Amino acid sequence: MHNFFIESLRLHQRIHGKIAIVPKIEVNDTDDLSRVYSPGVAEPCMAIVDNPEMARTLTIKGNSVAVVSDGSAVLGLGNIGALAAIPVMEGKAMLFKIFADVDAFPICLDTQDTDEIVDTVRRIAPVFGGINLEDISAPRSFEIEARLQDLGIPVFHDDQHGTAIVCMAAIINACKVTGRRMEDINVVINGAGAAGVTIAKLLKCIGNNPLECRKVNTVIMCDSHGIIHRGRTDLNYSKKELLMFTNLPDIKGDIRDALRGADVFIGVSKGNILKAEDIATMAKDPIVLALANPIPEIMPDEAKKGGAAVVATGRSDYPNQVNNVLAFPGIFRGALDAHAKRITPHMKLAAALAIAGCVTDLSREMIIPGSLDKHIAQKVAEAVRRACLEEVM
Q1: What is the DSSP secondary-structure string of 156-220?
Q2: CATH fold of 13-153, please?
Q3: Catalytic annotation, pick one of 92, 201, 204, 348
Q4: Is 37 noted as a catalytic residue in this protein?
Q5: pLDDT for 239-271, tens place per residue?
Q6: Domain ranges in the chain?
């Protein structure tokens, strides 16, 4: 039996971090030095002065991503701060390289002030081809991402969009194996943080071309106080915005009230909040995506006992792992290759469809590709690159 916590600590102690900067060429003599540094380096500098776009081809900018976090919402650990967030951001940078050959670097900021984070990212942006915002608490994460969309490079909060994209792919395939149509399903989402809000928007195709996407029928959002409805006086601005397209009948109650007759449950909240009898109140053959980590909202065996036809979690030790690694490497690879200025809804939908399409032998135990399949990033990258170019044309 593995104790991954102890093994991980020992690994980090032994290797002192998971990534390193490695030169692409050797410097063996003064001629080599003159080409990579002074005096020869002046020529690429002046080429960039004449044409700033040349930075993408003459420097690391064209293949680099900053993984930016303030450590305010790290995994299931909460607000642990910038220093303690480094191991996670290092791991993210490593996955960028392994799956998509993107050079990423952890940037952990010792501030949780929204204005300071926005200003800092603006100042470091010239060296990067993209910004991956990571583990920043909601609702600040929404504002930070929105205010950085004018940088001229993709800015993407993976906890929001990566999770939403992989969820969308899972639901597309879960509908196929349970004989449903996307436009008929009724969805309950528990957790109105960064991931939950963005999942809801993607499922309702907010910002997407309706000709390219079938919206789900209804979405009911719940938080720790129950169903988000118009009579509540404790809603922040992002939750109020949700009411523009969720819970249109304005039902009230708790998560169990929301689940009655629902086709799909998506949990991005906390573990062990549901039981088999709660799943039994849903529609026939319900779809359950219990994504809280490390303990899902309901364990797969318990969900199946309640009648769940398809169960997905965020864990690698169960079938149907919904893992962001299926999305973010390929999305940034495709965006960098297309010289994209932002990640658009069209590109996100293309990524979701590409991930869903990678499962050729669909079953209730296989609605999503394996997280370690390196071919997924290539297919997602091509779909995103093509979607970006279609929008430019």
Answers
A1: EEHHHHHHHHHHHHHHHHHHHHHT--GGG-EEEEE--SHHHHHHHHHHTTTTS-TTT-PPPSEEE
A2: Rossmann fold (3.40.50)
A3: 92
A4: yes
A5: 999 999 999 999 999 999 999 999 999 999 999
A6: 13-153, 159-393
